[in-house]
Amino acid sequence: MSDNPTGNQSPGRELSRREFLTRAGRFGAGALAAGALAGPAAAARSRVARSAKKVPTGGTVTWALEQDPGFIAPYGATLTINHTANELMYDSLLEWDPKLNIRPALATSYDVVNSKRILWNLRKGVQFHNGNELTADDVVYSFQQIMNPPLPGSTATIGQVPGIADVVRHSRYQVQMDLKAPDARVYGFLAWGRYSAIVPNNMYSMVNPSTQGIGTGPFMLNGSYVPNDHINYVKNPHFWKPGLPYLDAVNYKIITDEQSRIAAIKAGQIDGCVVSSDNAVALNGTPGLVVLHNLTAAFRELQFTIKAGENKPWADVRVRQAINLAINRQNLIDKVYAGYGDFSAHVAAGYGPWVIPEDQLHSTYEKYDLPAAKKLMSQAGVSGFNVTMTTFSTPSDFTALAALIKADLAQIGINVNIVPQDPVTFGAANSAGTFDWDLTARGMRGDVDGYVAEFNPSGPSGPTVYNKWFTGWLGSPGGNPKPIWRLVGNGRITLDTNKRLPMYHKLDTLLMQQLVEIPLISVSKFFVVRSHLKNMYVSFTDFNPALRTAYLVS
Amino acid sequence: MARFVAQRLAALVATLTAVSIIIFLAVRFLPGNILDLFFAGDNTATPQEIAAAEKQLGLTGSYPEQYWRWISHAFQGNLGRSLLSQQPVSAIMGSALPIDIELVILGIGLALVVGVPLGVLSAVRRDKGVDYFSRVAGLVGISVPSFWLATLLLIFTSRVFHWVPSLSYVSFFKHPIANLEEFALPALSISVFTLALVMRLVRATMLEVLNLDYVRTARAKGVRRRAVLVRHALRNALIPVVTVAGFEVGTIIVGAAIAEIIFGLPGVGYQIIHAIFQRDYPVVQAAALIIAATFIVVNFAVDLLYGLLDPRITVA
After folding, report:
1. If DSSP codes are grouped into helix, strand and coil, which group holds residue A38?
2. Burial of A418 (0-12, 13-18, 19+ CB in 10 A)
3. How do residues B28-59 score in pLDDT, each as one tens digit?
4. Residue B164 and residue A70: Cβ atoms within 8 Å?
5. Which of B31, B87, B168 sits opposite A253 (nearest CB)?
6. Residue A52, CB half-sphere, CA atoms under 13 Å: how many?
7. How high is the mean pLDDT of chain B?
8. Sign (positive/negative) of CA torsion A464, A470, A472, A473?
């Protein structure tokens, strides 16, 4: 099981006061490199040290969710918070460790019969929360829901599912998966777990899937999810990982207002929550509280539409390259995210070995070089233009980023009109391709293909994305998408990781030259936890799997 | 009286029908629908899959068809299901409504219980210390936004007393003390504006009434000062207060929505705000209709109260 996006990110770090002071005072690539996240070795050492002592068990953790999930059904949910809300309850066939190494979960191993057939060997003796034993029938049922999500989910998530043709029972503890074509995305998709929960056969007819669920995870529901209020979990005494979980219960309380979350943690009513970078800085050093941070996959980027027949100024690759050079990314990180972030290419910074190294981004692909930007604009024969850039009205970092980008681009004659929108309005225009520029964010993907699939018109996202955004790319001044199309298509069906890696490196460097989307920065996420809650980390996945192994000390 | 009530009831039904149409259209004229939330960005769902989801969620048909479907079901007590959670809207509103009812009662109650005596005291002790204090406090109360006050109260109690209201809704009928503890700060934050308004109004009308002939006559006839104030002056001064209190229910409901977000109370306002962002039409429609109906019914009740407060006002 080596087909993995192994990361060089640590499972999250505490912020020290010294670090804050240092970060606040430094600006530049060197400083950023010095503040880079600790590597896998450091994380491994800390785990070894911890395993030597007895971990306290028991206790209840109350964690504030910053958004209501709407429902906790495992399939067809598009909101990140949905998986955060139900991930303690479910397991997948595979899982990621905190460093995104793939490891066995409900499947102990798999046999690759041929490039289109995989046999999954299930772990024996695993019990669902209702006491039933996990068998192949449950896995078959689960995949039927994954491939055609019932209400309250939607079919919107099907695009994230690899090309699975069928999943059938092979024996009581063995499942046969047939693929439509060789597909390297399968393993990452299953380890991600976001859309691949394994539930008991016919679960949707046994419970109300909006508010209830049955899984094999370390915690099981205590009662039902109460929308806009709370979700309570208790320890699964029959969890298949011996000794886990350490906690007796985890209660999620939905508190959408950040100041209310901060007041609640200060008053001791909750044990942890997500906060913005500004509040993380303000809370650092508060007695009894610990601030944790880590990069997440949610990098920010500037999207364009390049449509056939429109001939907008940015259809010329030199203008896009000028825009890329004129944006001061370090300034964005320092001003908006208190210095916590990294440059990112099309594959999210921190996404294991698949990314373009940070030093290359700083020195070459995402270098801030205003004179070069002006020169490119001049070569393109563009003295300046007006453009509308839409972005999210909340969270506020998007509008703050937009304001800084506007100031940067004014220096090369581009007058940006910022239009903040609510997520649905933004999403509607984004899906329809009825925007000029969008300042948006990406998220976690199970496989590296998820970051580049939209650049291939013949792939699954061809009709829905490429044909609405990039119809004018081929044939535009300097536009050369064909090598990119080939690499996207071939990368997906190449199963050998060693062969895939150089393909995706090449692909990302080509995309950084074509820049039909301009990736900006990966940002850090911040947790504030009470100091008695241990073993917590901020997951790169943007979810909160740390609660599975967290414990309390007195 | 019966004819008046019948006329007002007919107007109430007509208003509610108009409001329901406006609400129905308003949410649909917003850009995008819930499918844009589901299918936004770089997902790879095909147009066929999107159309299937549209059908699955009941978003097909013309607007008149959809409106008729909604309103005819509503008359049968079926408010539909949330597009996001697939929970029955009636169940969502059933759990949310008690929170708003309690918040509104506490908010208005606090405003009247404190505002009226303070206004009377301020008028009776005109240009004295208590009057200056009340006037300054009233000015501050009218100027302070309720969302700001709510946040400030929360931060203050968490920092100073290391206490914030309970994070989960506690029913008054199960744990009255815990419930009142939970609602004290939200009710205070949403009542301050109305309290200040009522206090200033009572002061102004009391000052006016206290100078009228009948009050002077009553005093001259030897009626006790307390009786003059309460039975003669205050009763007349309360008529505009009742009007304002009726209108202020709307302000309190709006304030309650913000307070519910800040204090984590899943009331109707909380539901409607989230539902608007998610284009969850059935929830928005039901919640907005409930709020509109409440406002209309309260004002209807206020009209009826006039006659009770002042027998000279007839409803014929």
Report:
1. coil
2. middle
3. 888 888 887 777 655 556 777 778 777 777 78
4. no
5. B168
6. 5
7. 86
8. negative
Say yes or no: B133 and B281 in one domain: yes
What confidence tier does A28 reach under pLDDT thresholds 50, 70, 90?
very low
**B86 occurs within a structural domain:** no
pLDDT tens digit sequence for B274-305 = 888 888 889 999 999 888 888 888 888 887 77
Choose among A169, A210, A190: nearest CA to A72.
Answer: A210
Q: How far apart are CA B187 and CA B1, in angstroms?
A: 35
When CB atoms are compared, the residue of A255, A262, A424 closest to B37 is A424
Query: CA-CA distance, B219 to B216, in Å (whole number)?
Result: 5
Q: What is the pLDDT confidence band of residue A30, given thresholds at 50, 70 and 90?
A: very low
Asked whether residue B144 falls in the same domain as residue B180, the answer is yes
Amino acid letter for position B237: A
Write the DSSP assignment of chain B as a string of letters.
-HHHHHHHHHHHHHHHHHHHHHHHHHHHHSS--HHHHHS-TT----HHHHHHHHHHTT--S-HHHHHHHHHHHHHTT---B-TTT--BHHHHHHHHHHHHHHHHHHHHHHHHHHHHHHHHHHHHTTTSHHHHHHHHHHHHHHHS-HHHHHHHHHHHHHHHSS----SS---TTT-HHHHHHHHHHHHHHHHHHHHHHHHHHHHHHHHHHHTSHHHHHHHHTT--HHHIIIIIIIHHHHHHHHHHHHHHHHHHHHHHHHHHHHHT---HHHHHHHHHHTT-HHHHHHHHHHHHHHHHHHHHHHHHHHHHH-TT----
Give domain status of residue B148, yes or no: yes
- How many domains are contained in chain B? 2
ipTM surpassing 0.85, yes or no? no
Q: Give Rg (Cα) of chain A.
A: 23
One-letter identity of residue B84: L
Domain housing B42: 2-75
> Residues in chain A, how many?
554
At A320-364, the pLDDT tens digits run 999 999 999 999 999 999 899 999 999 999 998 999 999 999 999
Instruction: Look at the block and give the residue holding tokens 């895939």.
Output: A500
- Do B53 and B103 lie in a common domain? no
Closest in B37, B45, B164 to A264, CB measured: B164
pLDDT value of residue A39: 27
Cα–Cα dist A358/B16, whole Å:
61
Any CB–CB contact under 8 A between B29 and chain A? Answer: no
Determine how β-strand A249-254 pairs with β-strand A60-65: parallel
Widest Cα–Cα separation across chain A: 71
CB A387 within 8 A of CB A41: no
8-state DSSP, A495: -
Q: Burial level of A510, CB count in 10 A (0-12/13-18/19+)?
A: middle
Would residue B80 count as lying in a domain?
no
CB contact under 8 A, B32 and A425: yes
| Cα–Cα nearest to B117, from B2, B190, B203, B21 | B203
Cβ neighbours for B88, distance < 8 A, ≥ 6 positions apart: B78, B79, B80, B81, B82
Q: Measured between CB atoms, does B1 come within 8 Å of chain A? A: no
Six-digit token string for A554? 């007195």
**Token pair 């419970």 in the structure block, residue:** A207
Q: What share of chain A is helix, strand, coil (3-state, %, to 5)?
A: 35, 20, 45
CB contact under 8 A, A430 and B41: yes
Domains of chain A in sequence order: 55-271+532-552 (3.40.190.10), 299-524 (3.10.105.10)
**B279 interfacial to chain A (CB closer than 8 Å):** yes
Same domain? B9 vs B146: no
B161 and B51 share a domain? no
Burial degree of B220 (CB within 10 A; 0-12, 13-18, 19+):
exposed
Q: Does the CB of B262 have a partner CB in chain A at under 8 Å?
A: yes
Q: How far apart are CA A471 and CA A479, in angstroms?
A: 11
